[in-house]
Amino acid sequence: xxxLLVGSGGREHALGLKLKASALPVDLxxxxxxxxxAELGTCLxxxxxxxxxxxxxxxQARPDLVVIGPxxxxxxxxxxxxxxxxxxxxxxxxxxxxxxxxxxxxKAFMGRHGIPCAASRQxxxxxxxxxxxxxxxHPYPVVLKADGLAAGKGVVLAQTEAEAMExxxxxxxxxxxxxxxxxxxxxxxxxxxxxxxxxxxVDADHARCVVLPPCQDHKRLGEGDQGPNTGGMGxxxxxxxxxxxxxxxxxxxLVEPTLRGCQADGLRARGVFxxxxxxxxxxxxxxxxxxRFGDPETQVLMELLDEDLPGLLKEVAEGRLERQDLTxxxxxxxxxxxxxxGYPETPVKGVPITLGPAAVRVIHAGTRKEEGRWLTHGxxxxxxVAHAPDLDxxxxxxxxxxxxxxxxxxxxxxxxxxxxxxxxxxxxxVADAW
Length: 434
Known about the structure:
CATH architecture of the largest domain: 2-Layer Sandwich
CATH superfamily of the largest domain: ATP-grasp fold, B domain
Helix content: 25-40%
CATH class of the largest domain: Alpha Beta
C-alpha cells in the first residue's frame, strides 16, 4: 500500500512506525517528514500546508491512502482537494475542521447540539470585552481563547481583572494575527482533564464511530504541574479509575451528540476527533474539539492499539467504518517528553544527543541527523514510550530508561501519571475530588 503521511513531528513518527508495522508491505512517503521518518520511507520537499504542491504530487503518484497529521492542512482544505481527485484521505473536510480552526464556531456548534461546556462570551470589540470582564459573574480565572489557530499558545487563564484586560487587549491588537481578532471569554472549569479520541465516519446517510481508550496529558513544564504551559510533557492511557459507566457517559453526553450534530449540520467527518474533556463535579464537559490526533497522546494510543493501522484508517477514509470495537493490548502505555533547554520559549537547537539502547520505544519529535549523530532540532525533542501491565510498572520502566536518552540542558518530568496512580491506589473514582 502506498501511503502519504503529512506532517513532521512526534505524532507523525509514531503514526509512521505503526503504519510500517503492518502485515502488508507499506511504501511510505512523508511531507515534509523528518530525518527520523526518512528512515521509514521517502520524504518529500513539500510543506504540510502546501495544498497545491501536495495535490499535484498526489495527482501524479496516486497514493492508496493519505493520512493528515496536523490541523493546519485540514483547516486549509487539503483533504477536500485530495478527495476531489478520488484519493482516500484520513482527515476531515475543511468545513468540519472549523471545529478546531474556530473556537467560536465550535462553541456555537456545542450550543446548538446540547453538548455540555463552559459558559462563554464572544468578543471582537475592546470596550465591549472590558465591560464584560468588569461585570464577570464567574469565579476567576477568566479563560481567554484566541478564536483561530495559534500554535497551542492562544489560551490564557487570567487570574485577575487587570491580567484579563491586558490579555484581551493584546489578543485583539493582533498578538496572533487574524487568529485573535475574535476572542472567547469563558468560565473556568474545575475537575480532572482527559483526552478522548474517537475515529469517526459521518456522512449524510450514516454516523459511525469507535472510541479509543481515554488518556491524560500533562501540559505544564515542571513537576507537580508547575511552570508554563507546553504542547504536552507526557501522557498515559488508559486512565485506571475510569469505570465502564464513566465511558458510557462520555459517549452519551459528548460523542453521540457530536456525531448527530455533524450530520444535522451537513459536516462530513472522516478522521479522528480528539475531545478535550474536563470531568467536573457535574460530570464531563467539553473544553474543545481537535480534528486530529493529539501529541503526545498518539504515542500512547499507537502503543496500545493492536490493529493493522493502514487498513483501519483506510476504512475510515473511504466511509466504510463498520466495526464498533477495536482490539487493544492489555495494560498501560505511558510516554514522557524529553524537551530541549529553553523550551517552551526559546529551545536550544543543534545539541548532540546521547541515545543508547533502551527497553522502551523512542519517538523522534524534534531531531535532525548530521554525520550519523542525532541533534536537538525543536522544543519537544524525543518521546520515550513504555508499555506494561499497569500504570505503576509503566512508570517504573520509563524512569529506568530515561538515562538512555540525554543531552546538556534536557528537560523532563518524572511525575507523569503519578497523580492518577495515587488517585487509583486510594480507590477514588472520577467523581471524587481530583
